[in-house]
């Protein structure tokens, strides 16, 4: 029982710095223990539970919807599954989004207050 409590406390401590809001001028990440969202200029991602927290980062699967600029269609485009990996170094979170068979897209985010976020026009 004591070992279980120690392990739970260690895991909670490892993920606590990751939970919250992360921003850059072209991306916003809201990370919770149960999932989260990643908003990019022309793409919305929903992190599916479980988000696998690890010391210094997280791994997740997300549903990605490419929104594009201008008027939006009445029927949203189909979602695709992507891998999302976050790595924390100091105050910077590097997030990699990998579509099957393609190189990863990288985003550098910081934990901060609100920033001016520009969506796809």
- Provide the domain count: 1
Can you give the helix content as a percent range?
10-25%
Q: Quick one: biggest sheet?
A: 8 strands, antiparallel
* Overall mean confidence score, pLDDT: 83
Structural class by SSE content: mainly beta
- Oligomeric state: single chain
Low-confidence stretches: 1-14
Radius of gyration: 16 Å
Helices and strands, in N-to-C order?
HEEEEEEEE
Q: Termini distance? A: 55 Å
| General form | globular
Give the total of beta strands: 8
Strand order of the largest sheet: 1-2-3-4-5-6-7-8
Q: Which range does the strand content fall in?
A: over 45%
Count of helix runs: 1
Question: What are the salient characteristics of this protein?
Answer:
eight-stranded antiparallel beta sheet; 12% helix; 8 strands; mainly beta; disordered N terminus
Protein described:
- With 121 residues, the chain is mainly β.
- It has one domain.
- Helices cover 12% and strands 50% of the residues.
- It has an eight-stranded antiparallel β-sheet.
- Strand 4 and strand 5 form a beta hairpin.
Please render the helix and strand layout as text.
Blueprint: H1 2-15, E1 20-23, E2 27-32, E3 35-40, E4 43-54, E5 57-66, E6 80-89, E7 92-98, E8 105-110
Antiparallel strand pairs: 1-2, 2-3, 3-4, 4-5, 5-6, 6-7, 7-8
Quick summary:
The chain is 12% helix and 50% strand. By secondary structure, the protein is mostly beta strands. It has one domain (2-110).
């Amino acid at each position: 029982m004591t070992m279980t409590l120690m392990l739970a406390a260690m895991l909670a401590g490892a993920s606590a710095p990751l939970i919250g809001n992360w921003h850059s001028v072209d991306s916003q990440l809201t990370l919770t223990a149960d999932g989260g969202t990643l908003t990019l200029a022309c793409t919305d991602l929903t992190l599916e539970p479980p988000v696998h927290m690890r010391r210094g980062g997280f791994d997740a699967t997300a549903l990605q919807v490419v929104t594009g600029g201008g008027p939006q269609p009445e029927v949203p485009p189909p979602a695709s599954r992507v891998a999302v990996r976050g790595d924390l170094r100091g105050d910077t979170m590097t997030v990699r989004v990998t579509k099957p068979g393609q190189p990863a897209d990288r985003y550098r985010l910081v934990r901060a207050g609100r920033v001016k976020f520009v969506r796809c026009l």
